[in-house]
Amino acid sequence: MATDSNYASFREIIHLYHDDDLVGALQFLDGLNIPPDITDEDSTSTVLLKTIRKHLRVQLQGETLPLYMDADPFVAFIRGGGNVPLYTSLSATLNQLWTSISQTSSPLQPFTVLDVGVGTGEALLPTLRQSHLKPFIYTAEPSAAIHTTTLSQLAALESDGILSGYNGITASAEALSSDRHSLEQFAGGVDVVQMTFSLQYLSQHRELTRYLKWVRELLLQSKSTKNTNPRFISAEFDVPSVANDHPPLLAEQRIKYIFESYLQGLEEYRFTPTFAAVVQGFLIPVMMSKFDTNLIEQISDESADDDRQNGRKHGKRRKRDGEPKKKEGSLTRERTKEEWVNEVQKAGFSKVELKFIEKYWWGDCYMIIAEP
Ligand SMILES: C[S@@+](CC[C@H](N)C(=O)[O-])C[C@H]1O[C@@H](n2cnc3c(N)ncnc32)[C@H](O)[C@@H]1O
Q1: Exposed (0-12), middle (13-18) or buried (19+): which is 130, by Cβ within 10 Å?
Q2: Cβ count within 10 A of residue 44
Q3: Does ligand 1 lie within 6 Å of residue 197's CB atom?
Q4: Going along the chain, which residue ranges are E strands?
Q5: Which residues contact residue 299 at a Cβ distance below 8 angstroms, ignoring those fewer than 6 apart?
Q6: Measuring CA to CA, which residue among 202, 185, 179 is closest to residue 136?
Q7: Where is this region: Disordered (predicted)?
């Protein structure tokens, strides 16, 4: 079956890529003698190989941009495929949660939400349009390119009377929690700290714990100053431990899970006008970064030790002359839903619940809802 032989090729390419041998991976793909152009007759696994080949070419020419520097591919991805039903359910759930949390907060001050890693506001903006609360919104987002467009949308919603105001902070979650004075910016208190698929970007465990503790401190401060019953709410995928971005990166089950899931992901965009942008600009770079040892080594020395104990090579191959370093961008650290609950509880949250949101090709989506 084509998929079986394509899986074997995928596996080979991934091994070469993991060993930092981009040239070897490209040579292997070229040796398969598959025509470069994608046709309607191609199986999705053949399309996957063709798109990886294109990606490696661009990467070897040193032309890849860090993820989210260019907003267009991400926007095309997030507004298509299974993201459409996912975000519809997500915004409806956020609206319900805001409404129920607002019932226990003071009606004298605006309902206040801090959205961290807001991106283009795919979850936040539709929720605002549905909500009757006229809230005050804080946003935090490290990518200035993306944040600028979101802030102009918030300005428009404010002038339409949908918001009572907003304040954007161009910073990462780690930057917020490492700044001793950052709580002062929220002295008026918040009712909700929300995140949708951005908590996974805190790939270093120490940073994740520090950030979650910071969120809890902010919510406790808000509880006393604003007389509210605030919550931390975070949407994430329930991803099997074996598929997570930590060593051993080349575990057979991990490569298989990533191969099979990304075939489904590609399939969702296959015959749409934005296919090339989504796949070359977002899906393939994200997928390849899952095998990038250079990035994984940055996550933690502890993980690297695990990897060494498992006998993995750590990009020790000598680079060919002039060969560029891989630079795929953001690495995530995903978890099973139970592991997410565990992390939040370890940061001191008193009550943590899970709410199922939607099935999705990368994993089922759940909302983690936590009381400080
Ligand atoms: C998958 S997108 C989700 C965006 C948005 N929350 C949504 O649901 O549409 C992840 C977002 O997290 C942001 N991000 C990446 N690293 C981050 C960090 N360390 N702290 C906060 N946000 C981060 C990215 O720039 C991006 O906007």
Answers
A1: middle
A2: 16
A3: yes
A4: 112-116, 136-140, 165-169, 192-196, 231-238, 351-358, 364-371
A5: 203, 204, 245, 246, 331, 333
A6: 185
A7: 301-338
Sheet holding 112-116, edge to edge: 165-169, 136-140, 112-116, 192-196, 231-238, 364-371, 351-358
Task: Give the tens place of pLDDT for each residue, 153-165.
Answer: 999 999 999 999 9
Sign of CA dihedral 303, 308, 311, 317: positive
The amino acid at 82: G
Residue 127, H or E segment: helix 124-130
Domains annotated for the chain, with CATH where assigned, are 2-63+247-309 (no CATH), 111-239+335-371 (3.40.50.150)
Question: Which residue, chain included where needed, has tokens 């009606």?
Answer: 107
The residue contributing the CA closest to ligand 1 atom 25 is 143
What was the pLDDT predicted at 63? 67
Ligand 1 atom having least distance to the Cα of 123: 8
Tell me the pLDDT tens digit for each residue of 123-180. Answer: 999 999 999 999 999 999 999 988 999 999 999 999 999 999 999 999 999 999 998 7
CA 46 / ligand 1 centre spacing (Å): 30
- What tokens does 125 get? 């903006």
Low-confidence ranges of the chain (pLDDT < 70): 1-3, 63-70, 295-330
